[in-house]
Amino acid sequence: MGGRDLRALFGSNDRGIQVEEHFTNRQEQWAAVTAALAAHARALAAPGFDVEDLEAPRDNVLVFHGIGGIGKSTLSRTVEAALAHAEHRPAQWGEPVRVNARVLPVRIDLARSAGTDFERVILTIRLALAELGRPLPAFDLALRRYWEQVHPGEPLEEFLRRGGLGRRFGKAVPEQMQSALNDVAQALLLPGTVGAVVGQVSSILIRALRDHRAAVRALAGCARLADLLEAEPDLDALSYYAHLLAWEIARLPPGRAVLPVILLDTFEDVGDRVHRDLERLLQRVVWLMPNAFFVITGRSRLQWAEEALHGQLDWTGPAAWPGLAEPSGPGHGPARQVLIGDFSPEDCDGYLARRLTRDGRPVLAPEIRAVMTARSHGLPLHLDLAVQRFLAIRRTGRDPRPADFDVAFPALISRTLSDLTPDERHVLRSVSLLDNFDVALAASAAGMTYEAAALRLVERPFVHTDPHAVWPYHLHEVIRSTIRTADDQADDRWSARDWRRAAERAFESVGERWAAAPAGDRDRLVNCLRQGLRLARDFGLGLGWLADAAWSYVGDSVWEPLAPPAPAGGPPAPLRTAADALVETLSTLARRQHEHRERTVARLTAVVESGLLPPELRDMAVYYRAKAERDLGRSQDSRSGMRAVAEGGGRLAPAARRGLAHLARLAGDFPTALSAAATLGWAGRHHRVLGDVWWVQGDMARAAAAYAAARDEAERHAVAGERATAQTQRAFVLAFADPAAAADELDLAQQLLAGLDLRATRLTARIAALVRVAGTPGAEVADRADVLRAEAGVAGITAARLTLELALGFHHAVLDERVQAQAAVARLRDLSPGPDYAYYPDLVCFMAGLEPPAPSHGRARWVDGEDVTRTRWRTLATVRRG
Question: How far are the Cα atoms of 75, 263, 287, 296 from residue 64, in angstroms, in the given order?
Answer without folding.
Answer: 9, 11, 19, 6
